[in-house]
User: Fold this.
Amino acid sequence: MKLATALLILVLGLAAAAGAQTIVDYGWEDSGTVLGMYPADGVLATNVAGYDGNPVHAGNFSLKLERVSDGTPQGFVAFLWNLRDGDVINVGFWRYDVTPDAAPSGRLWGHWNDELPGNPDGYSGSASGNGDYGLGEGWDYTEWDYTVAGNTGLVIEARVYSNPGDIIYVDDLHIEAPEHVNIQIPGCSPVSTEEETWGGVKALYR
Assistant:
């Protein structure tokens, strides 16, 4: 009986932990593009359709990012705020290029912005990200875990390397965050599971 009780407590604890997460899946199926970019004219972001001959990972649409300027142009694909020390944010997306060991290439990166949600252009330091640039053999998934220490806001970037005119495609953004975190993605209002039921969040984003 003691073993059964202990197992029940463990199962309930795991269920509670799982229920404390916000899970957002976004595939650019609603005509969204990006929430912002750096520099201001750094990339040309377009919502494109597979039936027009564009690469799409799932569904009918994806995000096309064309590098316009020099530097390190980036499109902002998610804003997260109300972060607390110790939070772990898992972020990933699918990226497309067919140029092994050469540009164009895509990268998942991030920076802290403790002025969110009021100032989407704020910058509170680099948050780093995945160091690889993809295999260049079509679609591949890239992801990164961000651990919060001393910051309250995070911006997720899709970066395009390396010459003006280079194009990559991004699809099926995936985010896992603690329930107190607010998340904004292109085409949608901010979401927190403290304000939405779990079923409602799944209905909105899956």
User: Anything to note?
Assistant: The CA atoms of residues 36 and 120 lie 8 Å apart.
